[in-house]
Specification:
alpha/beta, 181 residues, globular, seven-stranded mixed beta sheet
Length: 181
């Protein structure tokens, strides 16, 4: 779902740095770090995420390693909800479950603590950017394995030309503050 607020989309796009040929030739990397340099911009982004998430009747916010940890904890605090980490394999200290997923250049694994989500809990899965949807889909699979329910996905940026939202439709709707067609 595209956000209907032109102001927030313009704010995000005007503060994103595009880095050509990173991490490899032919890629135009959307660097969100400039969004974090201006507290007013960061607050406006957080407010937009809160406005989207508040009516969803959530039990937790799930953030994807590592850039889902930038706004995810603040979003959880603002909604008075727990923040659940989905991390790369080997980064969580207690008992975990794992899912392996394909990348364009190989495969990777994500983990979540076994006790992070209870059966029936409604969660929002958050990350900074939606590209092909593989990482968000793997995160959703972890939530489902624990018996959680995905209410929605929330992203700051959606690279819509990579069709990542299509990968997520079977789980829940997705929301992005800025769309790159």
């Amino acid at each position: 779902m595209k956000v209907s607020n032109f102001e927030i989309e313009s704010l995000v796009k005007n503060n994103i740095r595009e880095v050509v040929d990173f991490p490899k030739a032919g890629i135009s990397f959307k660097d969100i770090t400039p969004l974090l340099l201006d507290p007013a911009v960061s607050q406006r982004i957080l407010t937009a995420l809160i406005e989207y998430a508040r009516p969803l009747n959530l039990d937790a916010i799930v953030g994807i390693d590592s850039r889902g940890f930038l706004f995810g904890p603040s979003l959880a605090r603002a909604l008075d909800l727990p923040f659940v980490l989905v991390r790369k394999k080997g980064k969580l200290p207690a008992n975990t479950i794992e899912v392996e997923y394909d990348l364009e250049y190989g495969s990777a694994s994500l983990e979540i603590h076994k006790d992070a989500i209870k059966v029936g809990e409604r969660v929002l899965i958050h990350d900074d950017l939606l590209a092909t949807g593989g990482t968000a889909k793997a995160s959703a699979q972890l939530v489902k394995q624990l018996g959680g329910e995905i209410a929605a996905f929330a992203f700051i940026v959606d690279l819509a030309f990579l069709n990542g939202a299509e990968q997520l439709k079977t789980f829940a709707p997705s929301f992005s503050l800025a769309i790159y067609d």
